[in-house]
Amino acid sequence: MEQVIKSNCRVCHGGCGVLVHVKDGVITKVEGNPDFPTNYGAICSKGLAVPQLVYHPDRVKYPLKRAGAKGEGKWQRISWDEALDIIAEKYKAIVKEYGPEAIVLGYGTGRNYEGFLYRFANLLGTPNVLTAGHMCYGPRIATSGITCGKLTLCDYENKPKCVMVWGNNVVISNGDEYTGENLSYVLARGAKLIVVDPRLTYLAGRADVWLQLRPGTDVALALGMANVIINEELYDRQFVKSYVHGWDDFVKRVQEFPLKRVEEITWIPADKIVKAARLYAQTKPAGIQWGCAIEQNINCTDSVRALVALMAITGNLDVPGGNVIPASAPWLPVSKFAMHRELPAEQRAKRLGGSTFKLADRIAVITPKGVWDAILTGKPYPVKAVQLHGTNPVITRDNSNEVYRALRQVEFMVVADFFLTPTAELADIILPAATFLEMEDIGDYWKRQNYLYPRTKIVQIGECRSDHEMFMELGKRLGQEAYWHGTVEGNLDFILEPLGLSWQEFRRLEYYKVNQKYRKYKTEGFATPTGKVELSSTMMEKWGYDPLPDYHETPESPISTPEMVEKYPYILITGARSPVFFASEHRMIPWLRELNPDPIVEIHPEVASKLGIKDGQWIYIESPRGRIKQRAKLTATLDPRVVAAQFGWWFPEKRTPDHGWNDSNINILTSNDPQGYDAAMGATNLRVLMCRIYPSEQEEQKK
Amino acid sequence: MKYAIFVDTRDCVGCYACEVACKQEHNLPVGPRLIRVGSNGPRLIEGKLQLRYEVEHCRHCAPARCVEHCPKGAITTRPDGITVISPELCDACKLCAKDCTFGMMQFDEIKKAAYKCDLCVERLDQGLKPACVAACPSRCIYFGDKKEISRKAGRKKN
Lengths: 703, 158
Description:
The complex is a heterodimer. By secondary structure, chain A is of the alpha/beta class.
């Protein structure tokens, strides 16, 4: 029998409507749903390769228990009951001896079970949830929260006339809330385009103005643009007068960024900055499409604040086609489901790094080094267990060598994943996770704020279960029975209750959309302490930080550490997206890996010729932390002073349990020295490093 | 009516969705690529440094050299202009590939099989567009009546 079932992809954060073709109970094809209002049938390579993910022969299909030494790759199949009992007993013992804070929960990019994970953690009493939230998306949420009340979205539905894409490549990779299709649509209809990116991407080439900045200087550029907008009086006087807090102080700070200085800091000619500032300020409406590149450096919080300031002073905040503040969702918000208020104050006070990184603490995220230190040194208190869901920190967190050491040493580790990643190989218990086609779930119960959609269970693979179910079942074993509504469906009913729908009713809908309202500030103000957009932040001031955005030079850079230039002459940027992978995933999917078989480092041809590096050659990239190998791609898309390496690389085809975790993994080179952190978020610096590059010995021998 | 396909590479973002859509639709192994995205640049276009992508695909030529070269009569052009291969007649001798300007005859060395774009004839029969066209997030692949598509292609510069 053949069927076509509507669902919603979750290969990245999710959001694209898909049609799932099923024949005799087997998924034969996944394609875009032409009628779905977020993607209109468009779908990316990763979404199209979903059948190869679901039926991959290497999927973990049963709970596994370590049967040899840690990391030895020997596993014994056990039952779900045994796995969950082992974990629950261990946690009871740890809570008794060390307190719940000694158990750290963690997730990666987050796939709709964040609420379930936090609910479990908060009820358990641990304040320590390890995510990417300190340096990806979290800073935009937290900083927008204190600046204008809530994270804003570029309002493609109302067709911006100008889009400023800042540190983001949304047309080939996940853009958190929107699909690249939405941007392509407005560009095809003539929207102006400004792109801020150190690499010439497709978008940068197409842009009316491309600002090729020195990596890590985003905030200086944004303040330089504000300087133009204010001094040329291109700002929205009425809005500023009525809805901005701290205008005079902000103007004073902006005057410290005259274009001559900004040009020096950013490498961008002043006339280009003027052109971009005028285009953004004078084309109405204009939206900013930002990405995590602005967050992964020392200026994280200030970059976000400066960009929110640009939205505000140009009158583009919460207007159709600008950057809108999503209307309140009429279902139970994730923050409520997560039960943050149930975490006792004395437990919250124990959050690792919480008293240092106060903005991160506000949204319940931590910087990872706090966990590694606690494991390795027992300070400020020991961490005895780590439970990770859909995350591969050995590959994706800064200073991989330290991450590896810590996860090898931690007393007890649980990993839930689709595959045996280099991180999973260090676990004591492995739980087989279900893909989005193997569970009942409410789609995008967080990120795409205006939409909610059902995902229904289509197939069962092995004994895989949804992460949601794992948290619920563990919770029941740890005295949380009363909070978990019996079944996963009971929890879905609970989330939907304010909508007046049950899961059984909701699962028959294609989607639920909230009607967006605009200029809500006119009646409600902004959800900040002053009720205005805080260009000077009262919260930051209260916490003892600079209330205004400012530029800080990265501690390791040709300017801060000129003595390093001789040995490490190039600026290394990491994290440029490949269209066929999501972070460290998908290296085992044949259709995708074929298109990007090796890790790629981009080098300017002039530099390559000076160093004797040929196109396609394996080369070493070395930083003071170590060295790795990637394949050189010679391309004049970069400033010759900059080298761009891919991230997320491991080699599932290497069948030893280490899977080549340190061969090409860029985080061998990144630093987690707190000196490089953003002061308020604890964001780690992944984007501005110094390096040298040279042909690999292997290649030398071949000559 | 005769069908044609055209990629307006000015709008191609290089995301590879078309390639994987094609792989899935035809259940292709690693190796054969019936539509192929490759970067072209950076180069100066209208005074501006740009990064464009080249997209290679079967043009369904009329007359088609692959059809002429096939000794088994395994490749034929249908009345609607679509050139298709009949796997039961093909022994993967590769003679068809000899004169293909676009290098779009594809082979699986292990299975000893030849593949080419068939514009997803099975989908067309159901009233659907070819898989690559349907998936393309930047909507740069145009499919339809050959006359109309040729006009579109004729207007393209750069």
